């Protein structure tokens, strides 16, 4: 202390103390600003989880359990991730009244904010697939239409039809049409495997290959019908049936007319 007290009357002591004080104030302000900026994000996520929990308890817990542990009529949601909730709730498949039937796409019950809150709550229970962002879903840039068509025919056409129109499965189930489905929901279905659909992990289909499949689906959706009526694009069965019905019907009508004239 005696060593320092000798310099307290030095003419450079005052400016030096002023500089030190300013540095201290600036550092304190920066730390406080960073804390203030991070607080709303933390609060928003915490608030979304709390809101999602309340929505879950009111609208989902009767089937999935109070702690999302599942039950006799509905599976556990622990570990399914935010993507699964966003797909099921965002497409209106959940909540559903009758769990014994296949969930059909319909108008969603919850709006976007409520769906996001539900997804945040379920995601907080255990790690799982996250909702893909816009940076992930840039299929126009990262996808390849020709590759996507080949991948679709090899992995998806046996259920969803070669043109993505959907098709029947066993035990009264069906694969829905992919026409008009948002790219986000297609990607989420690939990574979560809803209902009878298998999960296509990144080892099965890489993220780039998933985007190629989406790009091909969107190209098929926008493809014009140069040949006339599509008849559902469900293959030669409908075309053959139409030919037989119209052709045989016309022949029968002609035969009846000729018989009538002969009398």
From TrEMBL:
Topology in the lipid bilayer: Multi-pass membrane protein
Catalysed conversion reaction: a quinol + 2 Fe(III)-[cytochrome c](out) = a quinone + 2 Fe(II)-[cytochrome c](out) + 2 H(+)(out)
The enzyme's E.C. designation: 7.1.1.8
Entries under Pfam families matching the protein: Cytochrom_C, Cytochrome_CBB3
Entry's transmembrane regions: 241-260
Keywords noted in UniProt: Cell membrane, Heme, Iron, Membrane, Metal-binding, Repeat, Translocase, Transmembrane, Transmembrane helix, Transport
A molecular-function term among this protein's GO annotations: quinol-cytochrome-c reductase activity
Principal EC category: translocase
Major place of residence: membrane
Cell compartment(s), UniProt: Cell membrane
Gene Ontology CC: plasma membrane
InterPro entries: bc1_cytC-su, Cyt_c-like_dom, Cyt_c-like_dom_sf, Cytochrome_c_Oxidase_Subunit
Domain Cytochrome c positions: 47-126, 143-221
Protein name: Cytochrome bc1 complex cytochrome c subunit
